[in-house]
Amino acid sequence: MKVLLLTHPMPAAPYGLALLEALPEVTAVEYTPALTDAELAQVDAVLAWSFPPGLVPRLKGLRWVCAVSAGVDKLLVPELPPGVPVSRIVDPEQCQGIAQFVVLMALRHARQLPLYDRQARERDWSRHPVAAVRAQVAVLGRGAMGSAVASMLAAVGFEVRSWSRSSGESLEEVLGGADFVVCALPLTPQTEGLLDARRFARMKRGAYLINIARGAHVVEADLVAAVREGQLSGAALDVQRREPLPADDPLWTVEGITITPHIAAQSSVATICEQFIEGLRRLQQGEPPPRQIDRMKGY
Ligand code: OXD
Question: What are the b/e assignments for 82-99, b being 16+ CB within 10 Å?
């Protein structure tokens, strides 16, 4: 069996070493553009974050795609044959890390830490009314991430309302009641650009957005406008449409928008290897790989 490692921007070496130790009979190759058609045609499985353009049709023997991540949106390219199963990593520790990040960002905003940081630089000891952390949070997405986020926010005193596309509730109504909106949705054609000028206008004036899902959920130019004109008080964006975010992107320049480089939480190499190796063993035995997503739904 042959596997292709496409873990860029993460280095492939640790995954190759783990595979060699656990499944010495499997050949693991790190992707380079120099791989020939004949070499690529022998690949049975890939461990990947995304596919370089034009690669998938050359993987003629592909039997399984395993994402190196929780989200699989970058792998669901139209060229991927419909019968090839796609799996994702399911890591409770990553969900917990994401939830901690959201709570951190929500409390930081609710307790005005950026303001006090600014004041401290000027040795200004002014006090402002303290907002009770009883604010309302709308968590968009009820999957593993969204549920972990909702529970942790509730545990520190926020009032949480969860929404998903299948809940039947009106998104506009849920947004309209929230002081904070957290995006934890999968990225699909139905959720791309969901948070746009129209939705920002439906939010409470001064609401705060936290996005730990995918940059493409947000129409970033609309967000910049909404924050600049005060409709939103700000946003914490751990994900952006273009990653790495280019130095000249307007998102960097807006007071109130915090950018972090997709670090809210990551699965450990050990967990990814464990789940990939489990799937390869199943493939060797002719069994379906675990943690498959529904390719029709896209998550
Ligand atoms: C992701 C991840 O899907 O980091 O963004 O796992």
Answer: eebbbbbbebeebbebbb
Sign, Cα dihedral of 49, 55, 56, 59? negative
Buried b (16+ CB within 10 A) or exposed e, 237-250: bbbbbeeebeeeee
Q: What is the pLDDT of residue 159?
A: 97
Does residue 97 line the site of ligand 1, with CB under 6 A? no
Q: How many CB atoms lie within 10 A of CB 255?
A: 8
CA of 71 to the centre of ligand 1 (A): 5
Structure tokens at 17: 């070493």
Say how many residues make up the chain: 299
How far apart, in Å, are the Cα atoms of 178 and each of 150, 203, 253, 285, 286?
13, 7, 25, 49, 48
**pTM score of the predicted model:** 0.95
> Which ligand 1 atom is at minimum distance from the Cα of 214?
5
- Ligand 1 atom nearest 267 alpha carbon: 6
DSSP annotation of 133 reads S
SS3 109: helix
What is the model's pLDDT at position 131? 75
Q: Is any atom of ligand 1 closer than 6 Å to the C-beta of 211?
A: no
Residue 133 has pLDDT above 90, yes or no: no
Express each pLDDT in 141-183 by its tens digit. Answer: 999 999 999 999 999 999 999 999 999 999 999 999 999 999 9
Name the residue of 98, 101, 260, 262 to mutate for ligand 1: max ligand atoms within 8 A of Cβ: 262
Give the Cα separation of 196 and 218 in Å (integer): 6
Greater confidence, 19 or 9? 19
For the annotated catalytic residues, the residue numbers are 214, 262
Residue of minimum CA distance from atom 2 in ligand 1: 69
- Residues 85-117 have pLDDT tens digits of 999 999 999 999 999 999 999 999 999 999 999
As given in the structure block, the two tokens for residue 38 are 């004949």
